Fold:
Amino acid sequence: MKKQNIIDHDKCKKCKLCIEVCPVNMIGIDSNGLTNFIPERESICLECGQCMAVCSTDAIKISKYSYEENFYPLPEKNVDYEKFTDFIASRRSIRNYKNKPVERSIIEQIIESLDYAPYGSEPNKVKITVFNNREKIESALPLIEKFLDDIIHWVDSPIVSRIIKLKKGNETFNTLKNHLYPMSKLENYKLKFGDRITRGAPAILVFHGDKGAEEHTNNAIIYATYAIFTAHSLGLGAAMNGIVPAAINKEPQIREMFKIPKNEEAVISVILGYPKIKYKKAIKREPKITNWVA
Ligand SMILES: Cc1cc2nc3c(=O)[nH]c(=O)nc-3n(C[C@H](O)[C@H](O)[C@H](O)COP(=O)(O)O)c2cc1C
Structure:
């Protein structure tokens, strides 16, 4: 379908900012000296909206967006570095929740915040399935417990280990072998000790997408990261959870319970709820290994 990207030349001040910011060089000066979309490049538009956001006279319209629905003025003052680091430092992965459901409107606010996230290639190839029902989450736990127990047999078996490495790659295999296997061996996730899988959380968001969809893995992790910070800003506790998606991808019955379509893979999940415990200190971890070149 032809894109309806338009520049209103009565409004355009020819500042060329849209040309400068466009990530795919889709806007240029045409033979009449007017700023215009370059028709043969419109198919590579990322629909990021930056051209419209930078235009001071609202002269640009790309097919997906309108100034009325998708744009609003930014405040003059931004959060400063100190406030920002205080905020990110005060977030913790929350694994102790009050027995209190999360209002749907709050989860909607969290999901809405993902609209502001960066994305590779396509923003909407990641889907989010929301479970806001503790009973439903609990019903999946025995199957997830079994999946975690099975990891012991898989890693102990040289043949199965080789198959996992070949099919899933070294990163997945090493996560199983070096992270989940020792945990399972020590019965860390056994339900007889309580729910150490979803930690009693009343809600969980599962981020998933078509197996081959471009950049869906990176985008899902970015969206989940935004989700945990937005949850924190709303007074909720949250934590990433990699076990639930791994179990969904391996066991069809768990996939069915979480309503993830067969051709899709779960990438990451986020558990959510009201935190029971308040942390009094930020944790400053050891510095990242950094190579400064020149
Ligand atoms: C990709 C990923 C997967 C994670 N999976 C789990 C998980 O399955 N269960 C869990 O309790 N925490 C999980 N976490 C949370 C980490 O354990 C946590 O971020 C880490 O311990 C640091 O603690 P902090 O978030 O409070 O700084 C995961 C984090 C990431 C980034």
User: Anything to note?
Assistant: Residues 92-93, 95, 239-243, 268 surround flavin mononucleotide (CB under 6 Å).
